[in-house]
Specification:
The structure is a homodimer. By secondary structure, chain A is mainly α. Chain A has two domains: about 80 residues, Orthogonal Bundle (Arc Repressor Mutant, subunit A); about 90 residues. The first copy, chain A, has seven helices and three strands, in the order αβααββαααα. A three-stranded antiparallel β-sheet of chain A has the order 1-3-2. The first copy, chain A, is elongated, with a radius of gyration of 23 Å. Chains A and B meet through helix 1, helix 4, helix 5, helix 6 and helix 7 of A and helix 1, helix 4, helix 5, helix 6 and helix 7 of B. Chain A binds a DNA duplex (30 and 30 nucleotides) through helix 3.
DNA sequence: TTTTTATGTATAATTTATTATATATAAAGG
DNA sequence: CCTTTATATATAATAAATTATACATAAAAA
């Protein structure tokens, strides 16, 4: 799957592994991310498969760059993938939900600490979508010949925004649902 | 991470790999799932690490069952994990968003087909959360000594419900955002 | 009657992803 | 002056996950 992300970026411009890592970090990382080592090994594999070509660009006082270029076969592979509709909904892994599912024996205070911490993190993430990410995309939409692309990027940004809003709402609901019984417990015996 | 899911289930009752696969399928699968082979290999590894113990239960006319039991070390490992707050938000992989991000060159009709198909799938999933899943949990809450646990299961179900509502809303928005420009294009030239 | 579903465990092969480490240097910040 | 950040690639080791396959039987459904 990472391969399609890399092919996607390479349709815009030739790039090195380092570049591609950076592109992911600032664009798709919220819904598709990869470590540097995985990017480098995947690019090697893709070159063997003929999806990309590479050449070395010497640099003075910097390590050489290995710049990748998408091939016709690569473009086709990418197009086949985007054109092929998915018949299932993607499976997710949400660590927090797994923890919560098995948290009945845990002290409510510890759960609350965790949920409140998560709320802060998700609020920060929401804020990022609404400011930084939004600005970056509208700058692309305004200037270059990427207005059309920017509409799709904006759709993925909007998903992030709605997702974080939903997440915060759920955290609020869940925190309250845990607080209420705790209050009852704490009020049922006299204060020391 | 799968290891914690397995430990979690084993705090309720001893179980075989087959049982555990079934438990996951009907409970955590929407936010944490695993294949049968991964469950079996992980259980073996966990036994080596002393987190679980197993014994063989002979059966007539059925293959023997290898039944696992959580150890004290296993309980501690699980508790350490649940008690340890996460300092980051979990990273997600959303195939659909990745496809959409690189779909500017694709025919709008193909994108619409994909999004509408996804809408159907997510509506079905939402429906499942609101009926089947909800019923299963409230039955547990009503009968057994699992009322407390059921509150947490309900919280994870509620996440699923909110998530699917959000997803459908986003799909509607996105479909409309793609349809409008398509309408303009189609109306800009006379009908054949 | 044949096929599917359910019961059960196990391993091999492969793919995907993470962590850690090695090598090199320049510019900027504290 | 020292540390961090940025620039750049690469591999080894490990972990996590998927796909495929093998063995074995009974009941229920088509």
């Amino acid at each position: 799957m990472l391969k399609y992300a890399l092919l996607g970026f390479l349709t815009y411009k030739n790039a090195s592994g380092y570049d591609l890592k950076h592109f992911m970090d600032v664009s798709t990382s919220n819904f598709w991310n990869a470590k540097q080592s995985q990017i480098y090994t995947t690019l090697k594999k893709m070159e063997k498969e003929g999806l990309v070509l590479s050449h070395t660009e010497p640099q003075e006082s910097r390590p050489n760059r290995r710049v990748y270029e998408i091939t016709t076969a690569g473009r086709e592979d990418l197009k086949n993938w985007t054109a092929q509709p998915m018949m299932e909904i993607g499976s997710r892994k949400e660590k927090l939900l797994l923890k919560l599912f098995f948290s009945a024996q845990l002290e409510p205070q510890k759960i609350l600490t965790e949920l409140r911490l998560q709320k802060n993190l998700h609020q920060a993430q929401l804020n990022k979508y609404q400011t930084t990410t939004k600005n970056v995309i509208s700058q692309f939409a305004a200037s270059k010949d990427l207005q059309e692309d920017a509409r799709f990027w904006e759709a993925t940004r909007r998903f992030g925004e709605l997702y974080e809003e939903m997440y915060i709402r759920w955290l609020d609901e869940t925190i309250e649902g845990i607080c209420k019984p705790v209050d009852r417990l704490e009020n049922s015996r006299p204060v020391d």
